[in-house]
Amino acid sequence: MSFPKTYFLCPTSDFIYPPPTGPLCLGSILRSTSTPQYPLNRASVVAVADAFPPVVETDWKKTFSTETGLGLGVYAQFLQLATGGLPLGPELNVEHSNRTANAFAFDTLTTLAFEPTQEYVEQAVKAPAVQAWLREPRQKFALVSELFVVTGMKLVKGAKIKYSTSQSTTVKGNLGIDVTALGTAFGPKGHWTRTNDDATETNRESEFVFAFRVKRLKFGRRLKLEEYNKGAFLTVGGKKDDDECVLMEDVDGAAIATAEPVPDVTENGKVYCVPAYHAK
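Above: the chain's sequence. Below: its structure in token form.
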């Protein structure tokens, strides 16, 4: 059974200490899920009286990986733009991929959570900093504004974290541009490969906030409390060591050494293409 991802990763470049020392706790109100270390109501958080009992897990491990790949069809369209729409030869095999892998291992992982009521959030948003934010012109004259209330936290000890990235581009075969009327042909032949790998590891014994969960506060005619998980990376459970991989068609043209930006009216801008050269 598949569960939706609901927990957001905290920044690990600047570890957030657990409550009460750190800035984040249950009931914290955030401007964005990307900056949990800066809650609006740090000095005036409404205490949570009905939190769920803490859940402690030991020897917790998980690996997340994402891979993006470029298919022949997209690549061939770039080349046709560079050659004015001339037909391309059929003998071509192109592979371009970006892969990232994040491996997490913790001695202990403790989950704290609560379910906020409408009454709780109406009291929480009375915090002076939240009210000052709502009075700013951008929010004051908007039809709808939004903030986020922290409803769950995952605290970890004895952390071992590894980040790795790998980029690879391979071109094989004969990319021919056959111009029969001119009695000539253009195009690169052979094999070309480029790879780029990088990895970083970090260990931390002391406890810190690894991930958090939120609900969205929507301010309009009335205050609404909604589920929110856009951009989340972790499910509620997930103790076992597994590998989640996503594969999709994509391309970063700037990463290809011979690529050049060219105008494309269909994209209302520029795309990257690899220009053909004269075959010797």
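The longest helix spans residues 72-82.
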